[in-house]
Each structure stands twice: as structure tokens, then as C-alpha cells.
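Marked as duplicate of an earlier ticket. Keeping the data here for the record.
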Amino acid sequence: MMNIRNAIRSATLIATAFVASAHISAAEAGNRDGVVTVKSRYSVGETVNRIKRSVAEKGITLFGVIDQAQLGNDAGNKVRPSRLVLFGNPALGTTFITANPLAGLDWPVRVLVYQAKDGQVYAAYTDFGWIAKRHRIQNRDREFAMATQVIEAVTDGVRK
């Protein structure tokens, strides 16, 4: 009788571990694209203005804002409100490029502010941990942590 109980207990533990690992794999799969999305409580225009204000207050360089919707609509495509905000701190951002020149694909920092089909506005950006992995940069942990703190602070003022 004890062997059957032990076998059932072992089978239960194995099944639980399998289900837990499947859940972890699904969670990891959802994060593979490295995109962090923040739900905004403001319109696209106001979200962009608040991000620009936060960038300026922190002394970060604003490189520009691209109105993707206007460009698309002018080209004859129906595009919901969408703006790409580009900014960065050259002293910090270029340290990633010195570690791997391909990191220049992800710098300056970009925050995409867009309106979804349901009307909700989001701010999305690339996770810096993901950028480090993407470019196999292993010697800039402090800098990536600092960049993460900055992007979180910049987008914090629009979070719903």
C-alpha cells in the first residue's frame, strides 16, 4: 500500500512540475520579443507631451518625434494615432555601442505611443535586459540597470 501511495505522490509531483514548467515556458515565450507595454491614462498627444516633458526635466536629449500616423495617412493608409519618440543620454547610450556596435540599432531609446483598436493608448519600449541579450553585452550591467530606471521613470507619469 505504501508503494502505491509513493508512486501516486511521485506522479503528482512530476505532473505538477510539468505543468509549472509549461507555464514558465509560456511566460518566457510572451517575453521573447522584449517589448514592455505601459497602458496610458492619456491621449496619444498628451502621452507624448508628458514623455517629452519628463525627458527634458531629466536633462535627456530629445532627438525627435515621428508622427507615424500622419506619414501613413498622407501616403494613403489608414493609420491609428501612432508617434515614435526618440531620446537618449549619449554618455550612457553610447556605452552599449562601445560594447557592441550593433547596439546602435537600439539606440537612441524609442518609445512608441499608439492607440489600439479599442481606443486605449499605450507606450511601448524595448526592455534593456532584452537588448543586452540581443547584442550579447555582458559587461554593462550597471549601465543597463541605469537605463532601465530611466525609461521606467520617463514612462511612469503616463501609467494608468
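See parent ticket for discussion. The CA atoms of residues 54 and 154 lie 6 Å apart.
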